[in-house]
Design a protein that fits this description.
By secondary structure, the chain is mainly alpha-helical. It is 87% helix and 0% strand.
Length: 76
């Protein structure tokens, strides 16, 4: 009886398919998380670049002391 059950391979492909599906879904979830982190990093960098450009335009053509004073007042 036990020998016959061990030699019976019916259903083995279903088990392999289920295992591979779990692995594939895991990789998919990892890829989605990685893409979300990359998009967030890109958004943060764009905001920092925009802030630097705005600061440059705000202080353009002014003496250093006046630019620092006005920028500090603007931030506060």
């Amino acid at each position: 009886m036990m020998r016959r059950l061990r030699e019976d391979e019916r259903g083995t492909s279903v088990l392999i398919l289920v295992f591979m599906l779990v692995v594939l879904l895991g990789f998919g979830a990892f890829a989605v998380d990685l893409a979300g982190a990359w998009a967030l990093k890109r958004q943060d960098q764009s905001a920092a670049d925009t802030g630097a450009l705005a600061a440059g335009l705000f202080t353009a053509g002014k003496p250093k002391a006046v630019a620092i004073s006005e920028a500090t007042t603007e931030v506060i």
